User: Fold this.
Amino acid sequence: MDKQSDLELTNLLLSKAAEAKRDVRFPGTHFVGMLHAHGGYHTVQTLLRKKEPSPGFIELWKLKRVDLTVEAIIVQSKWRNYFDKTLISIAEKRLKDIEYSFTPYRLDEAGDKGVSTANAANPVAISNIAESPRRFWWVNQNKTYKAEVPGGFMWSPKTKSNGHKNQFYLNMLEVAVGDIVFSFCDTEIKAIGIARGPAQSSPKPNFGNSGSSWSDDGWFVPVDFTELKHPIRPKDHIAHLEQHLPQVFSPLTDAGNGLQSVYLAAVPPVMATVLADLIGAEYVAILKTSGDIEEDVEKAEDREEDGIRGRTDLGPTTKEQLVKSRRGQGIFKANVRLNEKACRVTGVSEISHLRASHIKPWRVSDDLEKLDGCNGLLLAPHVDHLFDRGFISFTPSGDLLVSAKLPSNVLSSWGIASKFNVGPFNTEQAHYLEYHRQNIFKG
Assistant:
């Protein structure tokens, strides 16, 4: 399974875990921890290879939500094609043993599953909806559109002005990286957003008079919004939408009017499908150009750092150096400087303006790799950003590799040639660069 597919599967399973927690109060803490630590593919393999069903499987069976188990998810979706027949047989046997009725996923003659004829004109959008691990949201930005859409965020108070909870504010805590947001303003859906991070506590942005009655303490979610050239007016299509509106906490009335009391509302997948069809090619284009869903690297590294600090096999000095290496400091930076004298791309040699960047990311390196000077480069901050995100890489001989997913004007705007050689790397550096090209570089 390639990296992107594993990430999609991981996000799907995380969304199902969140659904289990929300609907039947099943925490699934151990399962979520496995997903964060090892990814979806490894987690599924581990659970299916066990001789007996996991405690989570048994508990969800008791709660009458077998549909949320790994076994049910895998055998009934496209993901069954990613696992060998032995593991799929184990999953199906477990479901049969508890008399759970399921329909095995099958490819039709066209090679795809169940795209309805009503949506056949827009198969890419339907595929993104039907198979997507993402959730969908409707944000009412009548008062805040001009600040939030250009600013790339959503913000809400944490409670109503009287201190009471508000589901439309609590929904901010449910948003996950990669979720899709339909932005509604002045009776139209005017923009599509892709969530780039979870909610975080934040003071109120400067909304002017629009936010004068709101508390200063709220939730902030980073979102990349793209404005539509051809906005749609849901009221004009309410005949297609009304049967798919949420039964509770709907963003629209049955007549298709927006509700002023709504800020962020969940959108059922089938309703999202209709909206995607109405928006058409623009929706598909936005998803295609939105870039890969980035892993929440900061959280992953926080967990790794906590793990280091809690280890009993390391002395305090070693712990401190391992932690410092996360930010390119301490002995790691000193070790990198033994091999590198300047930024390979810009030629800047003043060390105060350079970062010691891991080639194989810190969070996945072992103790020796975290401090190995050959696992690092001295890079200018903007070059470090491109390298860390996988938009550039290098061959062992020093040829610059540029991702097709990097907008063409970025390098030219920063004065970086798209084709040049930065000089050869030593054998140890070349080993780490191979990992970077295979696992980080976006190709």
The chain has a mean pLDDT of 85. DSSP finds 19 helices and eleven strands in the chain.
